[in-house]
Structures are given as structure tokens and as C-alpha cells.
Amino acid sequence: MPTISASSHPPSPSIERRKGGGGHGSSGGSHAGSGRGSSGGHNAPSDSGAPNGKSGGQSVPVEGLPSGKKGATLGGGGDKHTKVILKGEPFAGREVGGGTRPEVFGNSVYGSGYPGVPATGSVSGRSFPFFFWPVVYGGTTGASNHNYSDAENEYGTPSNTTRPGGQLVAAVFKSKSTGSNFRLVADNSSVTALLGILSTNCSSSLDAVVSSSTTVGNGSTPSPEQAVQYFRASSAVLTLDGYNNSAALSAGGAAPPSPLPNGTDTQLLGCLNSTIGGAVPLVNKGMDTGPPSLAVLLAGTLLVFVWTRLMRAVC
After folding, report:
1. What is the pTM of this model?
2. Using an 8 Å Cβ cutoff, are 135 and 185 in contact?
3. What is the rounded CA–CA span in Å between residue 231 and residue 186?
């Protein structure tokens, strides 16, 4: 997995810095905060480190998006309209779009974060409400649960560069107070875009933001059992080193999550959770920059024809 540099990606000026800071340890149990996650698993905090549902923000170039889309927006509101992926593109016939900012939060169950769809631990055959593909865990990780190997067979390995935003990468966020290591795993474009705002919003709790070249899966961290929170139709995940959530390997995603380890910095966890949820890049309506549709071409041709006939009549 390629190295990521935090210093070369300044925070977007359109996103307000989250107030608060100092790290606090946890004595275990469920996550701090309330009410943003979907049913089952840990819930995300209710506050947000970035504008919620707004379409403004820093533009993020994203390669590999379907339906002529060429980019996303940091803190963007999403696109509530759906389209069918055209023939000749990956996953032709499936729907894309329909997901908006308030629907970004999932929970600790794989397959969560899909608007209106309960988390079942599987991402097989799913549509792409936020355009991005779900994360996968490579190698034999989660071998006791076929959902993870099925996902890799369907969406490719973590190093698959054809996924929207590029291959999966990880950035490590280390707690100043407890030493907890959190990892953000997502496509390269999304992680790169989020580094600046996460470093700024959570600076008072952070000891360091470390680049990571750890390969996802193959017995290395992060693994499915370390997932704390999924976002954006499971296309981004926040993990915690040392967390062993055995429920991640249970069938159907129905088992309750294991408590967080003692000493987990829940203040930093809350800041990272809310900032990712409020800022993770979304594809907005109107971000089509690909070839014009047949309807647009025909309309343009008709306009030129009418204008030409009109000018001839005047002359």
C-alpha cells in the first residue's frame, strides 16, 4: 500500500474546525456519542466536524467513477438521483447515486452505511449509492466468514487500481493521551482528501498522523475484526489497532459488537468519526464532465438548424 503524506494536503478552508480536544481513555463498552449509526453495531457521534448536507467544499478529482462523473466534493451533499450504469462499464446494469450526506454513517457491521438497507455483513450484489465501491480485506482475513472473500472476488483486491478513487490505502491517527492507533481505510483519493481536515479538527487529541504502507489483509492490520465504523456504503472504514470484535465474523451481522479495549481514546474516536462522516467526499448532482448524452447532442443540432433557418429568413 503506497505511502501517504499528511503535510502536503492542507485542510479545506470551507470546513469549520471542530472545537474541543483532549484525549480521554475508555473503560470499555460501546462507543462514545449517540444516534447516527444504523441499527446494530456501534453508533457514530451525533456532532459533525464538517458541514452536514451542504454541497460546497473542496473539489476532489476521482478517477474511475461511472456515468461520466469525474470528481467528488469534500463535505458535499451527495446526489439523491439514481442512474443505471451503462453497458461497457464495470457493474453495468446496477444503480449508482441516491445517497446523501445524512445517510453516510453506518456502524461496525460490514455492509452498513447503505441508505435504507439493513446491515447484514455482506456487500455482494449491492448498488453504489455513493458511487464508490465497498472496502475489501485481502488474503485469508475473515476466512471463517465467506462475505469477505466473496467481496474480494467481486470488487477485486485492495490493490485494485480500477476502483473509483484508486487502490485502498490507510492513514494512521495516534492518540496523544492513550497511544490508541486508529486507521482510516478507503480509496486513495478519499484518504488523501481527508488528511488535512482530520489533522486540523482533531489536532488537540493527536500525537501524530502517520503514513502507512501496511497491506490490507494477509494477516496484517487492519482486519475486519478491528472495524469500529463504516461510512459511505462501507466504502470507507475507521479501525482501531488491538480491537477484536468477534461479531465481525458472525453470520448476518446480527451479533452485538465486542466492547472497545480499555484505554481507548474515545475523545479522538469521536472527533475522527464525526469529521469523516461530515467531510468524506461525495459525488454531487451535476458533476458530470464526461461526453454529452445523445439527447444533448440532438438538442444542440436542432438549435443550430433552427438558428440557421432563421438567419436565412432575415437575410
Report:
1. 0.77
2. yes
3. 10
